[in-house]
Amino acid sequence: MTKPRVIVTRRWPEEVEARLSELFDAQLNADDEPMSQAALKAALSEADALFPTVTDRIDAEVLSAEPLRAKLIGNFGVGFNDIDCASARDRGLVVTNTPEVLTDATADLAMTLLLSVARRAGEGERHLRAGAWSGWRPTHMMGTQVTGKTLGLIGLGRIGRAVARRAHHGFAMKVLFHDPYPPSAEEAAALGAEPCASIEALLEQSDFVSLHCPATPENRHLMNAARLARMKPDAFLINTARGDVVDEAALVEAVSRGTIAGAGLDVFEAEPKVTPELIAMENVVLLPHLGSATRETRAAMGFRVIENATAFFAGEAPRDRVA
Ligand code: DGY
Q1: C-alpha of residue 26 to centroid of ligand 1, in Å
Q2: Which residue has the least CA distance to atom 7 on ligand 1?
Q3: How far apart are CA 62 and CA 48, in angstroms?
Q4: For 107-164, how does the pLDDT look when each residue is reduced to its tens digit (9 = 90+)?
Q5: pLDDT at position 204, please?
Q6: Whose CA is nearest to atom 1 of ligand 1?
Q7: CA end-to-end span of the chain
């Protein structure tokens, strides 16, 4: 039987690429150069499946490929805002993603950012490496206590819940959340999480605000100037969701004016570009979209794409179908 032809847009972990080559007639991307829009479009005419990721833009133009050979788009990532799902559906394509396997890694990274910005870890490390440390003193680089503070979670899906668990059970934090699709009262209670009727009410009470909502058109600039102004002046904003959930220009204003105390960001509006003012700020911790970047998680993400594709080509329903 001929193997399905699949095109993978970026390099994947070695063990996953080896399995891809066993199971499929796989075109890998050894150079890891992002594919152009034209190459992505051509891929849909050449292969039975395309395996893109967060850095690709599978838009209506790409999806207008003729003739269309592909039947499956297996996204490497839980967020699938890189894909125009409505156009994919119109063209009869099935779209899958990789939920669950990156929940813990992303929650760990949200806590990394929260702790780093509160305890001035990035600033302290830069200080030491620059040879500027003159020794311990009682008032040197005092940060903000995390234990026992209030964390507001915007979105209490899988990752939001994993952050709540860490914050409440690990750091004795009071956890508030706002989610249009809240979990049951028992589930929330097990996480020590209390619902807030509005985002504004959550912002006003939280010492840390962490974003865990999807990048839908409705959530674009959810954290705008007005909402940032509702946060406490000594509070911090953490974003491991998607860059465009925050109005980056408004955030720069809020941090530079002291409307909020600082931010921890793993995602940006125009990745890999980062607003230069943010780079100049000591009270902002910046990471290059590392949420899922552990060896274990990235391999699990790749194997999850393979699991979905294998089911699809066997005529079964893939478990992570999103369109
Ligand atoms: C995802 O899966 O959506 C992440 O942003 C990639 O780590």
Answers
A1: 23
A2: 292
A3: 15
A4: 999 999 999 999 999 999 999 999 999 999 999 999 999 999 999 999 999 999 999 9
A5: 98
A6: 77
A7: 28
Q: Which of 9, 53, 78 to mutate to test the pocket of ligand 1 (most atoms within 8 A of CB)?
A: 78
**Ligand 1-lining residues (CB < 6 angstroms):** 54, 77-79, 102, 291-292
Pocket test for ligand 1, best of 102, 104, 211, 301 (most atoms within 8 A of CB): 102
Q: Which helix (H) or strand (E) holds 162?
A: helix 158-165
The number of the ligand 1 atom at minimal distance from the alpha carbon of 301 is 2
pTM: 0.97
**Cα–Cα nearest to 285, from 232, 238, 242, 241:** 238
CA 77 to ligand 1 centroid distance, Å: 5
The pLDDT tens digits for 157-214 are: 999 999 999 999 999 999 999 999 999 999 999 999 999 999 999 999 999 999 999 9
| Residue pLDDT, tens place only, 247-266 | 999 999 999 999 999 999 99
Angle between helices 295-313 and 14-23 (to 10 degrees): 10
304 is catalytic: no
Write the CA distances from 310 to 75, 225, 293, 307, 315, integer angstroms. 14, 46, 24, 5, 9
Please calculate the CA angle 208-214-216 and round it to the nearest 5 degrees: 125
**Angle at Cα 219 formed by Cα 58 and Cα 249, nearest 5°?**
95
| Summary mean pLDDT of the chain | 98
